[in-house]
Amino acid sequence: MKYNRRRFVKTVAAGVGGAFLLPARGADASVWRFFTNADARLVDAITEQIIPADQDPGARDAGVINFIDKQLAGRLRRHRQAYRDGLIGVDETSRAMFGREFVVLAPEQQTEVLKALESGKAKGETWRKQSSAAFFRLIRDHTMAGFYGGPQHGGNRGYASYKMLGLDYPQIIGQNRYRRRS
Amino acid sequence: MMKALLKTTMLAGAWAVSALVFAAEPKLPAHSQLDCAKCHDAALIEKFKQLQQQLGKDAAPGWDRVAEAIPLNEAAMQALGAKCADCHAKQAKDLAASGHAMTYAQSFLNREHNRMEPPMDDCLRCHAMFFDGAAGDLVKPLDTRGPWRMADEKLAGHRSIMCVSCHQIHPERWLSPPSVAAVSDRRTATEDTPRRSETAATEPSKLVGGAATRKAGFFDRREHQFFPADRLPHPKVFKDGKPLKLSDDARIRVCYQCHAPGAAHHAGTSDDRTLRGVHEGMSCLDCHSTHSLDTRAACAQCHPASSNCGLDVTRMDTTARAKASKHDIHTMTCTDCHAKVPKARQ
To answer: What pTM was estimated for this model as a whole?
Structure first.
């Protein structure tokens, strides 16, 4: 039930006649490709801690969550299990440290949790499967890629980071004209 | 039961727009009162309805999810582009009579051009942005020797530039990925994490053109995405190392995606037409009509009021009078015609 959304999309995309094969939308049906809505909120909160908004947009403004979700349904699908486990682990650590789930912690508490992950000493059963440091590196790298990469990959919404860096996007560049005029 | 319902609405012709929209209106305001069926065939509307059912009306799933599930190929874009003429006959007629009515054959079978530079994938972003294949599927051979022919004769008459190259119907904010805020705000939000609404997409343009620039933009083949003019970069062009004054009319950003200088943005390189000399700082659209590109009516807006020579500018020896003139209207200076600049009328 948890990760069944994509099969769903496939069916629609295939355009199976006019048949309405689709089950009714449940109250908690995910609007994401890979994540559940709860997963997405957690990943969104983690990425916003990694690149917080200041005078410039942060990971949330740049839609990094959409990048990670899209890539886990595609090119980065090999990391799916790492995310499934890792997200459970983050909340285990969060509860162990502050008694509550990560998304409801105060920003400073969230920072503490991420520091614990990064150090590799985070508490939680799940971190036996992969080290918390490895998961932290993974999600940090994906956050960077989503924030600084091309919007066509799902992140960098509104060309947030390009604007911040003053990059032209899409670039103005002529063809390699043989005729030079000036 | 759903199926029966669907059939009935299909038979009824088109969907009532109100029944179809997501949380907000997914179309250009000017088109928001139109039936989907004015532009789309029944199959697309049906697919959309299924998708909407699946994603949920209020899910604000982002138009990129829609585009993933219902991709549009070149044939679909051509069909859509052709629909515009139903209601915008003047623009369609103007475009058809302009240089922008160039075809694939005119773009890729030009011997002079191909001898100097072989056809390649990069040409497609300006000359065939919706084409489904690569350059080799369009023209053969990809070299400077030729003789060149269309890979498929049926492609010869396809238009290089269509209405949908510069116009988008479903506004850009619908292309944005979903935001967690949009999703979780609908749920009982207990968290104290800061929530920000989507600001990026609604940021008004600071440049002249403002909201009006939402009307035009550019479909970028490299990103496979449409960019409204106020999201395109504003050109910076240099002459002898110094920046030229450029018009701040945001609509020129559309023109500069194709009429672009080379990578270093030197004036006059590649296909650049940046105004310098007597007309420095002007917008392309100060002289060229948007769709016909015609310039005949333009001169009278400013001349003879701001004329130095005391002559009818349209009769002077410039490219405005005859293409063969040495005095390019885009670049000429006083010293192109005067050995010594006479004292300007002050």
So the answer is: 0.87
